[in-house]
Amino acid sequence: MRASCTSLLLKLPLRFWPEGAITKVLEKSSLHPKPAGLVLQYGTAGFRTNAKQLDHIMFRMGLLATLRSRKTKATIGVMVTASHNPEEDNGVKLIDPMGEMLTATWEDFATQLANTEQKELLAALKDIINKEAINMKLEAEVFVGKDTRSSSASLSQAVLDGVHALGGQSKDYGLVTTPQLHYMVCCQNSHGQYGEATVEGYCSKLSQAFLALSKNASNRTDDQKHLFVDGANGIGAPKLREVESHLKKQLQISIFNDGSRGKLNHQCGADFVKVQQKPPTGVEISPGDRCCSFDGDADRIVYYYTDSRGFFHLLDGDKIATLISTFLKELLVQAGLDLKIAVVQTAYANGSSTRYLEDTMKVIVRCTKTGVKHLHHAAQEFDIGVYFEANGHGTVLFSKTAEEKVQLLAKSTNINDERKRAALLLQNTVNVINQTVGDAISDMLLIEAILAIKGMTVQQWDAIYSDLPNRQLKVTVSDRRVIETTDAERRAVSPAGLQEAIDGLVKKYKQARSFVRPSGTEDVVRVYAEADSQESADALAHEVSLAVHRLAGGVGAEPKPLH
């Protein structure tokens, strides 16, 4: 079979194959064999599953990244991480030239290549090369990074094996956060315009912008500068320490769950705090302490505190987007800049946040399907697009026009002091933000700067609006594809009768809303409900879960009431 595959490939024009590439791919792929029958799908988060099933995937994503690099004539990134998943899992995602997510056509190629049986691998490569008319004589460069999971070292080596098998050049960044690798790829392909493609360059750019912003804050006590950070026992903790060394004590950070003892993402991290609505396990925080949690690869962040009565208060992606967009809108008014600003949300955004932004702040709100690529794409349609998923993943995008107008105004000598100050604040805000992707460290520095400049406590920020109580549940089903949705995932179109059932249940409660959507990675259906009280939100979520279980092929026992 090997001989026939080889002869098939040799029918390609000579320009397609560097010398010895066929032999190298065959040799290396035999070291990373695909388990027969295993099928995986490249989703919004790339590939994610138990680490033991990923060796062949990593090798093949190294091959694919090398092809993508030749196709785009640019550096491509490959990040080995499973983000907020349990420690025994791992995953991989490819990063396109400007630090954005892999384009949809190539997601399909990733799935195709991953699921090709071993003996057909060369034919699958040929298919991609032909479809995309890739010149295999061109140089290729791939940046590789990994998180702190024990499986990441060998899996990232498999990626490198794939890159080298097709004659690509590689740069192994070792342990980095996912957003840092996105940043490196963008810096490299912008030829340094976006910044220097090193961890030191990243730390320096963000910290200098933060320090420039902090100069606009009135005198703050050490208590006001203090922030407790939950590192989810992941890569975020050591990388935050590297940034902290540049901050000149303008921010005093206490890091817990730093990976020295606990297990990655286990009862800690942004996802745990958001879903469980409580602080990380084993962490003692005093009333009023300002705290935040990263997720395992530091691309999500949520804030929280407990009040004097011991009640937990979460400030999630909705509250973060509101704080940032309010700050930016005020600066645009002060600077006299006519730029269109919008906040992009998903169906998970709390109804109170949407009403506050539209009715009080008069900011445009756009709702998209769940998934960062949908939010990112929608945010690009505005001069300034602020996007955050409720889970704390998000960033701010500035159009080229917006950046140029800000830079021009910041350099201007014939404007009044208020406009000048606002322009300089906007300029430094642009520089503290990692525009390539959601970045917990970058977002944290921006939030801390805004709170300092506005002289706000975390309690005052929280009081901007009151969240409607909500509950998220999930229902295991035999096939998640039976659920189809429309209207940015806010309404179900199949199975028959499900949306009608949800509508009927919602009518029973005040200020209520509920929707269901299939998971992108596993056979579960996610249920969201909000209402005027926690008791009502819990009851509605449970009743909708029952409807899903009965109408969409639920597996196992029916969901039990929460109370």
Provide a descriptive summary of the structure in words:
By secondary structure, the chain is an alpha/beta fold. Helix content is 41%, strand content 18%. It is built from 19 helices and 19 strands. The protein has helices at residues 2-10, 21-31, 55-72, 104-115, 121-132, 152-165, 178-189, 199-214, 236-244, 269-276, 317-335, 351-360, 372-379, 400-411, 417-432, 440-454, 458-462, 498-506, 534-551, and strands spanning 47-50, 75-80, 89-95, 141-146, 169-175, 226-230, 252-256, 291-294, 301-306, 312-315, 341-346, 364-368, 384-388, 394-398, 470-476, 484-486, 491-494, 513-518, 524-530. The strands form five sheets. The chain has a five-stranded mixed beta sheet with strand order 1-3-2-4-5, sandwiched between helices. Strand 6, helix 9 and strand 7 form a beta-alpha-beta unit. Helix 14 packs across helix 15. The longest helix has 19 residues, at 317-335. Its EC number is 5.4.2.3.
What are its keywords?
563 residues, five-stranded mixed sheet, 19 helices, alpha/beta
Largest beta sheet: strand ordering: 1-3-2-4-5
- Overall, the morphology is globular
How many β strands by DSSP? 19
Structural category? alpha/beta
**Mean pLDDT across residues:** 93
DSSP helical segment count: 19
Span from first to last CA?
A: 60 Å
Describe the sheet with the most strands. Answer: 5 strands, mixed
Low-confidence stretches: 1-10
Beta-strand percentage range = 15-25%
What is the CA-based Rg, rounded?
24 Å
As a percent range, the share of helical residues equals: 40-55%
